[in-house]
Structures are given as structure tokens and as C-alpha cells.
Design goal:
Blueprint: E1 14-17, H1 20-31, E2 34-40, E3 46-53, E4 56-62, H2 67-71, E5 86-89, H3 93-102, E6 106-113, E7 119-124, E8 130-134, H4 138-143
Parallel strand pairs: 1-4, 5-8
Antiparallel strand pairs: 2-3, 3-4, 6-7, 7-8
Length: about 140
């Protein structure tokens, strides 16, 4: 089994939205994220935002016509394909799923017990990003 790095590492996923201001509000209402930092851009866009959920964080911004924007596009873009998803650890998968569904999340997979442990559901957000919310904690497994 690999040993942990001798330094602290955090991985913070980054997302792009066509309507980032609306996404920030929706992510709070549907999933429970709170704004940590929001940097407005020109024309009602978001240059950069950091949202927190417990001890985790995501970063997001408005889709842009620049080199980064040419690579990372919102899933609803005509030429985009979903090649990744986000996994967020939650205490009560069923309650969280109900909250997300009430806010309009498209539930792709209802909460299910997983063969490796924990419970999981999948949904798409307001612009089509795939999110996985589960109770399986890989850090707890590694420590146990």
C-alpha cells in the first residue's frame, strides 16, 4: 500500500458554467455549498469563485473564450462530453438526494448501497455536470 506524501495535499476540482452566478446560488440551494470567495467579472460573469462544503472546496467560473475555456467547457456545450465527475462525501445520502431533487437536480441514479461500502447517488446539476454524493469515506477505509 502506498504511503501518504510527507506533506499536505489538497485536490480542489474546478468547474465551468455558462451562468456561473446562477450556478453558485443553485449549488448552495441544492447541495449545501457556501461561497468562500466570489470574484465578479465583466458583464455579470464570475472570474473566479470558491465554494465550500464542510472541509471540501470546489472552484468555478464563467465559461470564457480563452485557451482554458477552449479546453474546459460546460457539459451542455454542443462539443462537450462528460469525462469526469465529482465525488462529495455526505452524512445522509437519502436526505441529500431529496434536497437536490427538490432544487431541480436531475437524479441519474437513486441512492443505492454499494458493494465496496457506503451508499451513493448520482445527479446532474443545472448545466449538466455529473455529481456523485456518497457516504463511503476512502480516508476512513485507509485509516482502518
Amino acid at each position: 500500500m502506498p504511503q501518504p506524501a510527507p506533506y499536505s495535499v489538497q485536490i480542489i476540482p474546478s468547474l465551468t458554467y455558462r451562468d456561473a452566478p446562477a450556478a453558485i446560488e443553485w449549488l448552495g440551494a441544492a447541495f449545501g455549498f457556501s461561497p468562500h470567495l466570489v470574484v465578479p467579472g465583466e458583464g455579470g460573469t464570475i472570474e473566479h469563485a470558491q465554494l465550500t462544503f464542510g472541509r471540501g472546496m470546489i472552484m468555478l467560473g464563467s465559461a470564457k473564450d480563452n485557451p482554458f475555456g477552449a479546453i474546459q467547457r460546460p457539459p451542455a456545450s454542443p462539443d462537450a462530453t462528460v469525462t469526469q465527475s465529482l465525488y462529495v462525501l455526505v452524512d445522509d445520502v437519502d436526505r441529500h438526494c431529496a434536497r437536490a431533487a427538490a432544487a431541480g437536480a436531475h437524479i441519474v441514479m437513486q441512492p443505492e448501497d454499494q458493494p465496496y461500502g457506503g451508499r451513493l447517488y448520482l445527479c446532474r446539476d443545472v448545466e449538466g455536470h455529473l455529481w456523485c454524493f456518497g457516504s463511503y469515506d476512502p480516508f476512513a477505509e485507509a485509516a482502518g
